[in-house]
Amino acid sequence: MMKKNYTPGLTVQDGRLINHRPDGETGIAMAARIRKNRAHQYKAECIADGIELAEMRNSMKRY
Q1: pLDDT tens, 2-33?
Q2: Helix/strand/coil percent split, the chain, to 5
Q3: Do residues 5 and 16 touch, judged by C-beta distance below 8 A?
Q4: What letter does residue 21 receive in the DSSP assignment?
């Protein structure tokens, strides 16, 4: 009887071992990435709010 050698995230393709596992990330790196994404999202929201406010003011001046 042949034993199956199964490792999650690894496959054999054309005789080569292919790694599909995600890269490891430490908790500190994850927290830094989340903080950076939150800051970027805040800046984008501020710019969008500014554009919306400018359009509202512009439409009010027309009347």
Answers
A1: 456 667 888 888 889 888 888 888 999 999 99
A2: 55, 15, 30
A3: no
A4: P
